[in-house]
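Q: I'm a student working through a structural biology exercise. My instructor gave each of us a protein and asked us to get a predicted structure, then write a short paragraph describing it. Mine is glucan endo-1,3-beta-D-glucosidase. I'm not confident about reading structure output yet, so if you can add a plain explanation after the tokens, that would really help. Here is the sequence I was given:
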Amino acid sequence: LGMLSKSVFAVSFALILLYINLFIEVEGIGVNWGSQASHPLPPATVVRLLQANGIRKVKLFEADTKILGALSRSGIQVMVGIPNDLLAPIAASVAVAERWVSQNVSAHVSSNGVDIRYVAVGNEPFLKAFNGTFEDITLPALQNIQSALIKAGLATQVKVTVPLNADVYQSASNLPSDGDFRLEIRDLMISIVKFLSDNQAPFTINIYPFISLYNDPHFPVEFAFFDGTGDPINDNGRVYDNVLDANYDTLVWSLQKNGFGNLSIIVGEVGWPTDGDKNANMMYARRYNQGFMNRQRVGRGTPMRPGPLDAYLFSLIDEDAKSIQPGNFERHWGMFYIDGRPKYQLSLLGNGNGLIPAKDVHHMGKKWCVLAPSASLEDPQLGPSVGYACDHADCTSLGYGSSCGGLDLAQNVSYAFNSYYQVSDQLESACKFPGGISMIVTRDPSFGSCQFKVMIKSDSSGGEVSTKMCLTRSVAVLLLLLMCMYIVL
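A: Happy to help. First, here is the predicted structure for glucan endo-1,3-beta-D-glucosidase. I'll explain a few features afterward.
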């Protein structure tokens, strides 16, 4: 066909290679997708959000039928979770485990084409705060789910795991090489690790430098990030300049000391919140998550485990109905607001572009509920009304050091009233607090960094998810054809 045709083929070949490399580059990006929101985005909208941002893996905390349905044939790998409150019945009965696997794994894999790779049995069941509640039932539940997967013929494709908090191991000297499993659960941990190893399943660990900082005001802040500006730890020649590497390798040493040094590890949760605490802010969240993604992109691992980590960012979207028992920050881990808007500039793909927002999201009208100008701040109805509003809505941004921590008393009241009004779908009755102390306005009362929300319209529909994975396969086929034609020419 001549040199011109060969040049065209060469250019096409290069473009297709570039296109495919984009997908290879982001293959390891995973996120946690939680659903504890008063007004969640439609699952199909979220799936399109994942695809638009090159996210190829999701970790779910439960087996939500609508979410799994939206993930059908999406090209996204799935870790589906079993909540802690289901561990007891599953541990007590293989039949219950088989029924759970049939309904929540087999049905979606076979009928809907959902690419389920893992079942997460429980979520941090050995937290010290649980006082041993789940210690006797987690391993039996794990065993029964594995038996159910074997019976369903899925044990090769779908692996079991238990997402654990990093408090299951420790180091008396703070050196990773002194790491071992926590004494009171050491025998249990070794049994679980052996079970995972026997079934070629991974160890899943959640690592949170933010929590270290939250729990210890004297924690060295710079050591939480990946800039290399903190004081390093030298562990027999292995140098650690951030807490994630040190924590991860403490686990590696714990596994190695007990005979399982080659067990694969997944970081189930890693991230930084943006509100609800003085150290939970946009600047720190971007610094942490971008630093983590930068090291992933260049393939940096830890001193004990070189290479990029298999990890899931925590989390995708804010959850305004999540428990705040651990702290007000719990509702603000998302890279995106509850309506799918990016919070800050974050490049996941390494191309300098930021996050892509969710499409076709519809908000309610531009109306807010605020303290009436005629209301007295001495009104005895004020305190109980604010308490009621915050008990039924989200006021976590009002705390010290949070995005709305600088409001005056009247603005605090307005924020609380509006939060309740928005969660209540802007019902007129939701802005009728006793004594006529509230009113609806159409002028945005947001102040500085404090945003007064307008809630999204909650809608279970979302349309069909995109066919990006099919396109990717088509491109691969086209690449092969071009290669063959180029060779013939």
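A: Here are two points you could use in your paragraph. The CA atoms of residues 112 and 223 lie 45 Å apart. DSSP finds 13 helices and 15 strands in the chain. It's a good idea to check both against the output above yourself.
Q: Great, thank you!
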